[in-house]
């Protein structure tokens, strides 16, 4: 888990926020990827928490759907040589 702090935030408060977020996400059966704590003002913090995602990118090369890690050298080269349109 990556934690980013922007501003002057007390370590005790940081630890408390992290523990709270871990508990909240664990109750949902999710795992935290990142927590960003931003000091908006002396009285206000903004906490942005993102869950880990199990989404995998699937590509189609020569008609076959697969994840990139399963491509042989020729298919990986074809992928690198592709031109992105749009």
UniProtKB/TrEMBL annotation:
GO terms for molecular function: ribonucleoside-triphosphate reductase (thioredoxin) activity. GO terms for biological process: DNA replication. It comes from the Bacteria. InterPro entries: NrdD. This is Uncharacterized protein. The lineage of its organism: Bacteria, Bacillati, Bacillota, Clostridia, Eubacteriales.
